[in-house]
Design goal:
- By secondary structure, this protein is mostly helical.
- The protein has a domain of 217 residues.
- 73% of the residues lie in helices and 2% in strands.
- It has 13 helices and 4 strands.
- A two-stranded antiparallel sheet has the order 1-4.
- Helix 1 packs antiparallel against helix 6, helix 3 runs parallel beside helix 5 and helix 3 crosses helix 9.
- The longest helix is centred in the first third of the chain and has 34 residues.
- The chain is globular.
Amino acid sequence: MKSRSENNQVKKFRKKGNWFTGIVILAFLGFPLVVKNDYIIDVAFFFGIYTLLGLSLNIVLGEVGLFDLGHMGFAAIGAYATAILNTRFGIPVLILLPISAIAAAIFAYLVCSPIIHLRGDYLCIVTIGMGEIIRLTLINNPFGLTGGPNGVFGICFPCIGNLMVIDSCPKFYYYIWIVVGLSVFALIRLQHSRIGRAWNYIREDAIAAEALGIDVRYYKLLAFVLGAALAGVAGNIYATKLMIVSPESFSFMESCLLFCIVLIGGMGSIPGVFIGAAAISLFPEIFQTFAQYRMLIFGAVMIIMMMFRPGGAWPRQRGGIQDEAMLIGMENTEI
């Protein structure tokens, strides 16, 4: 009898989750058709960009617990790889999407390999320096490739052969959210895989995880590489939308905002990233009339939330929805 009641509870949770997911997908698909306002659709596009960047940092910070305050540097690598290869060699932007991810991943591997043994504040300080080194290098225009402070102009729009050119606000909206949807699907699968469990063990206690035979260095480096690759994809899409990239778009402040996205939503929580990204991208638009006070309001909200919701707006349930449903079923069953 107990097992039947537990199974019923699990089925109810799954049905609710499926209905909620279906409603959210339909809302996102129908949004440009209902709104028909390019400005609002653009805001939704940048909401998607921040969501993708938040998901990339969530791999490093949320899953493994590694402090990274230079994460926008990886997005810069992806954006500039796209800009330089497209403007100088005429390589199509969609072909450059995986290339930008690979470029950011290789850079992350080369840079993070020597520092992966650092922990806590020390790793945080080094990543800040890494992000600033990338930005200053782009400003100094090495080999005349990055355009210095002015950046790189004239990046082409993505095009699918001769069938369609992604050149309007609704098309870019669907483009970014399709990429976000695929990323979420892959990251959920990754969370429940052997790699995801190893990351969680390392986050809770790296010494105990190493004692159990987990290659801590390998899995930490893997998190940085995968997070950088996803940030490189976001950099590619960002560059093609604006048709220009400049060093100031990848400042330390932007890395701090990504850090806030993960903290606001909840470390390791994929739905929480959406909440955090909405707070970061939509908040300035809502409070435009209070432009000079909006950072003050944002800071006050952050302090209040950290006091009353230190786990984030949507903390991750580490046992998963099935385990949660089974626990509720056991609580409702008389012993």
